[in-house]
Amino acid sequence: MNYTDNNIETSYKKILESYLNTGSEHVLYEAQQFTRTLLEHKTSPEELVSLHRSIMDQLYPELPDDIQASFDFLLEAMMGYGMAYREHQILRDRQQ
Amino acid sequence: MNYTDNNIETSYKKILESYLNTGSEHVLYEAQQFTRTLLEHKTSPEELVSLHRSIMDQLYPELPDDIQASFDFLLEAMMGYGMAYREHQILRDRQQ
């Protein structure tokens, strides 16, 4: 399957929903494949957490505040990885 | 504050709990500082998601199955970032 910037959110929602409904290992494999697309689109790891939070809000409008806040916290904690990841892209581009 | 491998889990729990109790922006800043320590300890981004999931399990033993499963999914999706991050470390070490 090919993904575009526009349908990344829709695709993530579809794969996550499918996993939550089936618990299938095969869907986890799809999630790994999907990550490759995110990396190709230069999506940062904190953007992935933000996407996850946003889709969870859509799937569970009654999500307790504490759970939502915990995603905010994880997002903040992930930001350092985003910086390391962007540094990685610069180093890799330099080596090419 | 200095962290060791042994108390990373305890420290993350303390900071997350403090954020969930207070919602303080200052605690989010602490989370960012804490991430530096995780990076120094070469903790991968999927290990951070796993740590987060484990602490949420401790803080909320009644966490609904779907929420727990959503963390598993996020962890799987984050694995590609872990690989990119390890590649980054290799490139950086080569340049030093």
TrEMBL record, chains A, B:
Q: Which residues of the full protein are shown?
A: 1 to 96 of 337
Report TM segments.
none
What name does the UniProt record give this protein? PP2C family protein-serine/threonine phosphatase
